[in-house]
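quick one, 229 residues, struct below
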Amino acid sequence: MIALRGIHRVFGRGDERTEALRDIDLDVAEGEFLTVMGPSGCGKSTLLSIVGMLDGDWKGEYHFFDHAVHKLKPKHRISLNRDYIGFVFQQYHLIDSLTVYENLDIPLSYRKISKPDRERMVGETLDRFDLVQKQKAYPSSLSGGVQQLVGIARAIVAKPKILLADEPTGNLHSTQAREIMELFQELNRGGTTIMQVTHSPDNAAFGTRTVEMLDGGMLATESRCRQTE
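---
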């Protein structure tokens, strides 16, 4: 599904130049639940942004299904992102001028989905996350934890082929965090490929493979039995 070869990402120039990623090789199989771990600043979020096609200023080769992403124009990368990828951002990235309902409707509006189907999908997702009573609220009126739930709901409302999650439970209490990871596990068992960045060994235990990063490079990889309880 995903094949990265020699991915290199540099920020800045001259004396301010920072090598964020260096010669990353990574394969992610369809249906996998992959966790990326490592210390802060090691390049985890940068890697996720590249996989999610939100960052195009890198060198190397990236194959996504039968698409050579490194050869695509920005508009085609945006199209792939919209059609295949759901992204849970660490900093929410909700649209402040839109209600919770409207934030969930946005990713559906980019696709050829009828209005009745969009209403049904948003309604089901609001109910799934216990957000029905918040649907008319604006993000600024919500706690950080609720905003995180809205961000996760928005990422999955369109039933993406791959879900990318950057510290998805960072602002949730332990019970909510476990519920979200159980939801991710359920989605994965249903066929959704998941790639998450986390510092939490508990979150990593829900996946099938963990890769470790250090100083912009891959350090090690470990396959594990999925947590079931």
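The mean pLDDT is 93.
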